Amino acid sequence: MSTEPTILSDTAPLDLRLSDDELEATHNHILQFIRDVVDGAGAEGAVLGLSGGIDSTATAYLAAEALGKENLHGLVMPSVVNSDENMSDAERVAQELEIEYDVVEIQPIAETFFDTFPEAANDRMAAGNVYVRVRGVLNYFVANHENKIVLGTGNRSEALTGYFTKYGDQAVDCNPIGNLYKQQVRQLAAHVGVPQDLVMKTPSAGMWTGQTDEDEMGMHYDTLDAILALHVDGPLSKSATMDHIDVTGEQIDRVVELYEQSAHKRQMPPAPEPLDL
Ligand SMILES: Nc1ncnc2c1ncn2[C@@H]1O[C@H](COP(=O)(O)OP(=O)(O)OC[C@H]2O[C@@H]([n+]3cccc(C(=O)O)c3)[C@H](O)[C@@H]2O)[C@@H](O)[C@H]1O
Ligand SMILES: Nc1ncnc2c1ncn2[C@@H]1O[C@H](COP(=O)(O)OP(=O)(O)OP(=O)(O)O)[C@@H](O)[C@H]1O
Ligand SMILES: [Mg+2]
């Protein structure tokens, strides 16, 4: 088992960290994946949004290594709901990696949407999703122009719970860390040299002031990861899961509910079956 000491919380019900060999194999697999997607698209590199959070930071480190720093373009896109700390961390990541980056203030763009439907502008979720979707449009604006692909930063924990904005941060060409639970994203990030303060930063979708993933989902990522790995992805029944790890039936039910309610986000938009006319 890998020895990084600070990836797991003290109360983590399950240690999902990869062994050193598994971690290095995963690292190389993701580097190759990024190169394959870019080459397969005939593209000249990649664009990604930098939020100062661990998912985009880890993805940026991996992509800079896979593609070369000159082929990665970062967009830092602040609005009134983003903390200055996160935005300066995002710039710090770009500067540390020596990649090209732009800071694009998206508040005026979002305000145009809010002015169009003022009655929706005070709806925290609807308005928050506007920020997320505006970022997606800008990522593709730059990518189209520069013959680059858009790198997603989604991880497995988010994908299985639907914890992303449909056609927002999920509007991407690939998700290099998409098979890693959050705990494993932190582990891989530390492994590729991401500074420790970013590795252990509190996750936030940055859709409204003070939002954190764990408050909104109602549980710590280490608990979520454990239930996903054993019960949603894995074969253990609810009772067997409760026998194995220190989680409640309510927590398991909540995760299953998130998983089932978000099925539509993991599929292409459905259409009626063709009629046999
Ligand atoms: N059964 C169904 N079949 C087909 N479509 C269905 C549907 N149920 C809802 N929908 C559609 O989906 C829409 C709701 O989905 P959506 O628009 O995504 O919005 P929603 O899931 O309500 O909100 C997004 C969630 O993702 C979180 N998030 C967003 C962005 C980034 C991050 C992060 O971690 O950084 C987290 C955010 O905090 C929030 O909890 C509905 O308005 C409807 O259009
Ligand atoms: N202000 C922002 N500027 C640029 N990109 C952003 C911004 N906010 C979010 N994003 C993009 O949206 C993605 C999804 O956000 P998400 O919060 O899930 O990831 P994160 O911020 O990288 O990590 P964490 O989940 O730990 O906060 C980010 O990884 C980033 O690519
Ligand atoms: Mg974030």
Automatic annotation (TrEMBL):
Q: Which reaction does it catalyse?
A: deamido-NAD(+) + NH4(+) + ATP = AMP + diphosphate + NAD(+) + H(+)
InterPro entries in alphabetical order: NAD/GMP_synthase, NAD_synthase, NH(3)-dep_NAD(+)_synth, Rossmann-like_a/b/a_fold
Q: Which residues bind Mg(2+)?
A: 55, 158
Which pathway is this protein engaged in?
Cofactor biosynthesis; NAD(+) biosynthesis; NAD(+) from deamido-NAD(+) (ammonia route): step 1/1
Q: Which residues bind deamido-NAD(+)?
A: 133, 166, 173, 264-265
> Organism's domain of life?
Archaea
Keyword set, alphabetical order: ATP-binding, Coiled coil, Ligase, Magnesium, Metal-binding, NAD, Nucleotide-binding
- Residues the entry annotates as binding ATP: 49-56, 153, 182, 204
Cite the record's note on assembly.
Answer: Homodimer.
Provide the protein name.
NH(3)-dependent NAD(+) synthetase
- The gene is nadE
